[in-house]
Design brief:
The protein contains 15 helices and 8 strands. The structure holds iron/sulfur cluster (SF4). Iron/sulfur cluster (SF4) binds next to helix 14.
Amino acid sequence: MKNKNHVVTVPRMGTMSILVEDWMKRLGIDFLPPAPLNNKMIEVGASVSPEFACFPLKATIASIMNSADNGADTALMVGGYGPCRFGYYGEVYKVILKENGYDKKIKVLTFEPMTSGEGLLNDLHKFFGPLTELSGKSKPTIYWHLARSFKNAVCMDKIESMLLSIRAKEKYRGDTQKKYDEAINVLRSAKNDKELAAYHKTAVSIMNSVELDPERKTFKVGIVGEFYVIMEPFINMNVERLLNELGIEIERAIYITDWTGPKNAEKVAGINNFDSHNLAKPWIDSWCGGDYTANVGHAIHYINEGIDGIIHLYPFGCMPDIMALEALEIITDEAHMPFLSIQIDEKTGQAGVITRLQAFTNIVRKETEEIWHAI
Ligand code: SF4
């Protein structure tokens, strides 16, 4: 029997809420989209979190508390597994919410694949159990609707990957963003596979209708790093938009559906986890969690593809990415590849990031043009 009184949300993380909103709508569950992050929320998140917690925890707990204040009573969250701290997020959320009197307002439902040691099927059952109460639907139906929403989200991610390339070449600033919003709205209304196939074609042609500047010479940079920092524009200070405006096309190492989908599935980002882990093998002899191997593997993949530069984004306090940085510095140095690593936390200012991106872009242009002249 459906319980109509609950309002579900997710912590703010790029386009994640579009995927979950679509899923909840199909299940008939009320959904509150998380508000865009702002400095005030980050301040709150930092003040309630342990000082040395990694930055994504501070941002996501701030988003959950904000949604609770706005009426949500259930937050859905994908959990992780060790050894990085993501495996503890669910438990840390509970403690923080209790300490700040939010445990009566909002409950966090964490899907923790493999953490319980009870197997993926059991973990899925545990996660879907409360959703059966919220929706009044069976677990297979809930899963079926998730798969449906996921397919829409994959198409949206593909359109986002077009945005990150086309925006660098647009003739009129802001044009690509408008077309992207239009294309995403078209995809949002797809109800089944047939509609999705048709709407995806429409969305692609909307993106291809952006007028390009034939005079603009662009370069291509790969972005690797910690998934939350890469995927949430407020946290990374809109690095991708800034780079596009500087004439840099972007290849991003991870999208929402890459992160939430099966590890061996075809990825929007290019190579799947198994391939990136294989490429990274010479640089790691044991699993250290987070995005270490994915970052190293993607960087090698980008270099093999002939990219013009690599940017590494990671949050303060992230152990796997500090280790990845060591390897990335050597790999890019050996390949004579321009490389920039930016560590981000609640005190990072956008002005400093812009200056570093401008300097990096100049290096990419100079190095690439020198190679062209040498040829
Ligand atoms: S990958 Fe790094 S920042 Fe992200 S949860 Fe793990 S330790 Fe924290």
